[in-house]
Amino acid sequence: MGTTTTLASGLQYPAAIAVGSAGVYGTDTNDETVMAVGLSGGTPTTLASGNGNGVGSNVDDPVSLTVDSKNVYWTNGGNASVMSVPVGGGSVTTLSVSPNDADPDGIAVTASAVFFGADGNGTIQELTPK
Hints:
- The chain has 130 residues and is mainly beta.
- A hairpin with a 7-residue loop joins strand 3 and strand 4 (45-49).
- The protein has strands at residues 14-19, 24-28, 33-37, 45-49, 62-67, 71-76, 81-86, 93-97, 104-109, 114-118, 123-127.
- It has no helices and 11 strands.
- The strands form 3 sheets. It has a 4-stranded antiparallel beta sheet, with no helix packed on it.
């Protein structure tokens, strides 16, 4: 059996997680946040947050998350959007809203594109960020 180590605590409902070279990134669907914590643990840093009602929110029921060397990407189930924020924090970018009425879920990233599952129309979508 392996040994577990707590990297962060006191979260409401941690959901999606991804690991990058600089840290562990995750979503908290209750607090509507996207956060980061160092690989050795510590206090989570909020990278993006919601406004509690979903309308115009950066984080609205964050369903899935991925990371590359520059950005953290997530899908919002509440407002059907695909978002990103730099790994160290900063301005949140809306990459897509209600892409093809897709209701985005599941997400992966390459050097040139973001891919996500689309519950609403049963497809896998490719998004090339501008």
